[in-house]
Amino acid sequence: MDVLIISGLSGGGKSKAASYLEDMGFYIIDNMPAAMILKFAEFCAGASSRYDRVALVYDVRTSSSPAELFGILDQLKAMESSCRMLFLDASPETIIKRYKETRRRHPLSAQAGSLEDAVRREREVMEPVRQRADFVIDTSRLSTAKLRGELLRLFGNAEEKGGMAVSVTSFGFKYGLPMEADLVLDVRFMPNPFYIEELRPKTGLESQVSDYVFSFQQTQGYLRRLEELMAFTLPLYAEEGKALLVIAVGCTGGRHRSVAVTRALAEFIRQLGYQVTENHRDMGRGG
């Protein structure tokens, strides 16, 4: 079982980090008192695989002392669990600016005379936690995309290529564009199997149609250049923090050319190491 404690300063980026870790397969629990962490870990150890990766948010709201948290961490490690702690930090100026922009109340505002005083007090309380953390990320100058990339580097699975999934879907222009598409590719310039009587009832998933589509030099040249474009741009999308990229490939009816190209493109992207899903929206509509 993999247990990750997410801690840090209020306004340091804990909520954003928790949402990214949830996308990466962690089961997230926010604001858990230190006294309950051990009991929850024992429950997870005997439960289903859903709780194999757990991230617990611990911060100044819990009213637990750092010493109590440290004792729990020592017990977790004695259970032979993988137990690590991440601390999200930021400069006082950055935290104050974020609070002023969101107009939220600081958790220690009732005990302090000003926002600046609340930020200072919290830093003093949480400093022992920061010192004990396995990983410290200063988010003062990090974009959300860069934060996600750093979390993927630290906690992502080896099989996740930049943590980005890719969906490649074929469609017919006469039925409208897929609204969720990030990239739209138009392959209507390719010779159309619809006009070959024996190919008309078939789909681009069948070898006769696919062989016909890729028998032409323009189709082969287009796919070659498309593969070069994908190899160049997909890492950039992943680096920028894209969780899901939807590529839509369209022909007139969405039955022949777009289906064949979608299958070939999805296979190439899969070979690059990305998680790929292949869909054919209009393939059954008749072409």
Compose a concise summary of this entry.
By secondary structure, the protein is α/β, with parallel strands linked by helices. It is 42% helix and 18% strand. It folds into two domains: 2-155, P-loop containing nucleotide triphosphate hydrolases (Rossmann fold); 165-285, no CATH class.
What does this structure look like?
This protein is of the alpha/beta class and 287 residues long. The chain folds into two domains: 2-155, 3-Layer(aba) Sandwich (Rossmann fold), CATH 3.40.50.300; 165-285, no CATH class. It has helices spanning 14-23, 34-45, 66-78, 92-102, 115-132, 144-155, 207-213, 217-239, 257-271; strands at residues 2-8, 27-29, 53-57, 82-89, 135-138, 165-172, 183-186, 244-251, 275-280. A five-stranded parallel β-sheet has the order 2-3-1-4-5, with helices on both faces. Helix 2 packs parallel to helix 3 (66-78) and helix 8 packs across helix 9 (257-271). It starts with a strand and ends in a 7-residue tail after the last strand.
